[in-house]
Write a sequence for this structure.
């Protein structure tokens, strides 16, 4: 049975029956299953759900239908994007289920209605079919790397930021086996030193206090292609973490600190970042250096005489970030931070050299050579830059040779093609002339 099969006659005689699915049991939303769904899993808060629906008034008057539009309707469950009755009703449905929801005004459009089609204080009837639901992608680029399924919604609207002190209960599993179960207190940014993958910290920044959620973490945000020998996790493994954010205290945001506090905190986190770098924890080190940039980049109310100190801290932060990203094999981020450093000091030796390394990694050998040559021009004793120039020249030469071979092959193919076309054309023209000549002889 489908929603289209609900006839006008049935709609005109809709029985006020079904299961009361409201928490208060006030009869505000009655649900009647018309077709059972499959499986046992239900959508969770935050999931994106895909449905078809037909909406009528109690007298059978149709006011809306996704089926007539021929396009499924989607929304994030439990986020208040739809009427209360839908958030309640769809949360109880399985994939493939078709249910009738009878919704009292207080769970629909209330005393105001939704003119012109829905009058004030209207009880509404929806026939809803659930086709699919999927977890919420919390990554910045929505690359599917971290998917959240909310078990218990948290409180309030604030979430932890970088540097926030968090208390969390966690349970990590891989292929159905639990490998990590702990209660932890730590600052966001320090997770790597506790054996946590970066995805767990990213997950925590999306949570509210008291929230409990499941997170599915792809290798990019987990233990990558190397895995984790301590936990016996293979490379390219997808992880599942159940996290409960018990409590947290946000780190001060830039706008909450005065200039003196920003300088003081920048010195502290710079040392922290340096320690992480020495330990080979480049991602954690980069988090600390980024905080310096965020605090000081647009600071315009520094006390007299402190501008130079702030500029030195910003320069060091960008140079150190460039080095972190070189180690992490992220040349574009290296390049960007070198550019920022050179805005502060246009002849900085480290910034020029590291930008050259980034360009080399990006296979921009001509530009890389220019940076290394600039280093030699400014700092003639830099032997490493001389070696890099030689490497760049070798790569440029090899690229030119490769291009020559490529173009030679290309031109050869063009020449062969043109010759074939000329030959074919000649055959056609030649055949025509022979007919004409023999006709003339006759």
């Amino acid at each position: 049975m489908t929603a289209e099969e609900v006839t006008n006659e049935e709609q005109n005689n809709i029985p006020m029956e079904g299961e009361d699915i409201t928490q208060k049991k006030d009869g505000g939303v009655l649900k009647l299953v018309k077709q059972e769904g499959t499986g046992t899993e239900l959508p969770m808060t935050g999931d994106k759900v895909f449905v078809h629906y037909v909406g009528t008034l109690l007298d059978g008057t149709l006011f809306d239908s996704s089926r007539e539009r021929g396009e499924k309707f989607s929304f994030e469950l439990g986020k208040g994007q739809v009427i209360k009755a839908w958030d309640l009703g769809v949360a109880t449905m399985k994939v493939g289920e078709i249910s009738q929801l009878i919704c009292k005004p207080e769970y629909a459009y209330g005393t105001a209605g939704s003119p012109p089609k829905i009058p004030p204080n209207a009880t509404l009837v929806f026939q809803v079919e659930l086709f699919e639901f999927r977890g919420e992608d919390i990554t910045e680029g929505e690359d599917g790397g971290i998917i959240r399924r909310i078990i218990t919604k948290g409180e309030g609207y604030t979430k932890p930021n970088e540097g926030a002190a968090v208390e969390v209960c966690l349970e990590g599993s891989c292929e159905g086996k639990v490998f990590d179960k702990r209660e932890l207190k730590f600052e966001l940014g320090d997770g790597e030193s506790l054996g946590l993958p970066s995805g767990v910290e990213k997950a925590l920044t999306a949570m509210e206090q008291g929230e409990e959620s499941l997170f599915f973490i792809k290798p990019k945000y987990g233990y990558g292609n190397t895995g984790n020998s301590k936990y016996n996790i293979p490379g390219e493994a997808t992880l599942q973490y159940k996290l409960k954010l018990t409590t947290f205290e946000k780190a001060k945001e830039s706008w909450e600190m005065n200039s003196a506090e920003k300088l003081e905190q920048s010195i502290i986190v710079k040392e922290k970042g340096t320690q992480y770098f020495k330990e080979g924890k480049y991602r954690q080190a980069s988090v600390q250096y980024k905080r310096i940039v965020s605090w000081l980049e647009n600071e315009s109310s520094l006390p007299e005489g402190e501008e130079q100190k702030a500029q030195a801290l910003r320069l060091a932060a960008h140079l150190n970030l460039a080095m972190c990203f070189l180690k992490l094999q992220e040349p574009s981020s290296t390049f960007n931070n070198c550019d920022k450093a050179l805005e502060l000091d246009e002849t900085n030796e480290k910034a020029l050299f590291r930008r050259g390394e980034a360009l080399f990694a990006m296979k921009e050998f001509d530009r890389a050579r220019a940076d290394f040559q600039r280093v030699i021009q400014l700092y003639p004793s830099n032997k490493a830059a001389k070696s890099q120039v030689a490497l760049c020249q070798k790569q440029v030469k090899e690229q030119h040779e490769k291009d020559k071979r490529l173009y030679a092959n290309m031109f050869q193919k063009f020449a062969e093609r043109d010759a074939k076309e000329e030959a074919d054309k000649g055959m056609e023209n030649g055949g025509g002339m022979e007919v004409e000549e023999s006709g003339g002889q006759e």
Remarks:
- The first helix runs from residue 8 to 12.
- Confidence is low (pLDDT under 50) at residues 1-12, 431-442.
- The longest strand covers residues 124-134.
